[in-house]
Amino acid sequence: MKKVALIAVAVLISGWLTAQEKVDMVTDRPDQTESASLISVKGLQIESGFSFEKYNSEINNTTYNSTLVRYGLFEKMELRLGLAYLGRDVSLLGASFNESGFAPIVVGAKFHLMEEGDGIPKLAFMSTFTIPKSGNKAFENKYMGADFRVAGEYSLNDAMSFGANLGVAWSGAEYGNYATGIYTAVIGMSLSEKLGAFAELYGFLPKEGKNDHRWDAGLTYAVNEDLQLDFSTGVGLSKVSPDFFVSLGLSIRMP
Question: CATH code at 236?
Answer without folding.
Answer: 2.40.160.40
